């Protein structure tokens, strides 16, 4: 099992989290996404990571790789496999998280020192987080997946790990006030104790350095 | 089983195709997507169709509703359920179809009488169709799903049905030359014979009327 990845890519991190949670032996090949090697397009015509290679076969797209691994390596199951309705609900939640990460990218591209350019995306992130705060309250359990992290937990984590980059990149002008999301705040500290999460964890300072470099067109030395 | 739908919505058509293929009894409630009723947001906070309601439960997002129905009503299975790799491949194909439908929407919004504004999207559509033409050639079978239409066939069909709107909307300035895609051309005529496809079929002329109305902000009378 080989994973084509990139250290700072949140989508590739999704697959890495699933591989780690299931303790699937794998080797990681980091791809320079700025100057992609030609041979990589033979694996994935879209040239994107994550991309999984095994037995001469290739699959890509973060959610598809995660579902595949969950089906073929069911110990432990990350998506509740016995209840199709619960499975659908979890998939809907993962889709709804787009509200958080699409607005996070808008913020990265906005001028964070100009208040007008971040009001909209900030509202979107807070609206998105509210859905997850309420869902966690409703489920009355430690993780979205139950006593242990499940598919929802791992699929949203990469961007939750990146939320603390906002005060760094905006020079403390903006941060998500986690006291407004007490259950999510507790969830974040619980997730940080998970061994799969620890394996791919990168500090907010290093994420912020990468994002600054990437946006300025100069992520070299940070890519792999 | 109740489906909140809209007659001209390609995403809702995906769910309708699955319901029809599996002969699942259902009632359709068409939603006016321009002036959405308040009560609909209690079903789907995103206010989008398709949205399925059953036993006091609600699910939405076209691919999630399709997967749910496929799991709960497995006769016939639309996504190969015994081979996780084939299932992943089919899901990747469905994702890659984005290249066709995202560019179709770009064309709808472009000025179709100005050549420069359609060259890029047209190239994207042709590149996307080439992937499906080659895959069909490789699979050497009538439909992507085998002897009968499967998940890939139904999930891409709504936009394949809308491709012939292009010469109508561009006053014959542009059309996808299907002779460049002989297997797909055969597939289209086979799909048109499928009873599920027939149930939700709308003519290119009526699709074009709806799209013209929708883009001009006046789709009334065509919405439901």
UniProtKB/TrEMBL annotation, chains A, B:
Entry coiled-coil feature ranges: none
GO terms for cellular component: cytoplasm
Pfam families: GST_C_2, GST_N_2
Transferase as UniProt keyword: yes
InterPro entries: Glutathione-S-Trfase_C-like, Glutathione-S-Trfase_C_sf, Glutathione_S-Trfase, Glutathione_S-Trfase_N, GST_Omega/HSP26, Thioredoxin-like_sf
Residues of the GST C-terminal domain: 83-214
Entry keywords, A to Z: Oxidoreductase, Transferase
Gene3D superfamilies: 1.20.1050.10, Glutaredoxin
SUPFAM superfamilies: GST C-terminal domain-like (SSF47616), Thioredoxin-like (SSF52833)
Residues of the GST N-terminal domain: 1-77
GO biological processes: glutathione metabolic process
PROSITE patterns (UniProt xref): GST_CTER, GST_NTER
Molecular functions (GO terms): glutathione dehydrogenase (ascorbate) activity; glutathione transferase activity
Keyword Transferase: yes
Family: Belongs to the GST superfamily. Omega family.
Protein name, entry field: Glutathione S-transferase omega-2
Organism: Daphnia magna
């Amino acid at each position: 099992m080989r994973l084509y990845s990139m250290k700072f890519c949140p989508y590739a991190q999704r697959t890495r989290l699933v591989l780690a949670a299931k303790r699937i032996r794998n080797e990681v090949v980091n791809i320079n996404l700025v100057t992609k090697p030609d041979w990589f397009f033979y694996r994935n015509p879209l040239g994107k990571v994550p991309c999984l290679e095994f037995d001469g076969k290739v699959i890509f797209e973060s959610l598809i790789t995660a579902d595949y691994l969950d089906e073929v390596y069911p110990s432990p199951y990350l998506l509740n496999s016995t209840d199709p309705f619960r499975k659908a609900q979890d998939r809907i939640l993962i889709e709804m998280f787009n509200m958080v990460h699409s607005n996070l990218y808008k913020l990265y591209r906005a001028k964070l020192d100009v208040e007008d350019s971040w009001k909209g995306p900030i509202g979107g992130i807070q609206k998105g987080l509210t859905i997850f705060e309420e869902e966690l309250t409703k489920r009355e359990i430690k993780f979205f997946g139950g006593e242990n992290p499940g598919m929802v937990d791992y699929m949203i984590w990469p961007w939750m790990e990146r939320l603390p980059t906002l005060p760094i990149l905006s020079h403390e002008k903006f941060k998500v006030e986690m006291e407004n999301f007490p259950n999510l705040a507790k969830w974040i500290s619980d997730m940080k104790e998970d061994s799969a999460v620890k394996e791919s964890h990168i500090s907010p300072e290093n994420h912020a350095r990468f994002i600054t470099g990437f946006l300025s067109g100069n992520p070299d030395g940070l890519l792999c």
